[in-house]
Amino acid sequence: MNRIKNLFSLLERVFNSRRLRTILGVLMACIVSFGYIFYLVEPQIKTFGDGIWWALVTITTVGYGDITPLTTIGRLVAGTLMFVGLGLIATVQQLFCQIHIKLCRSSHQRRCFRKT
Question: What is the CATH number of domain 21-90?
Answer without folding.
Answer: 1.10.287.70
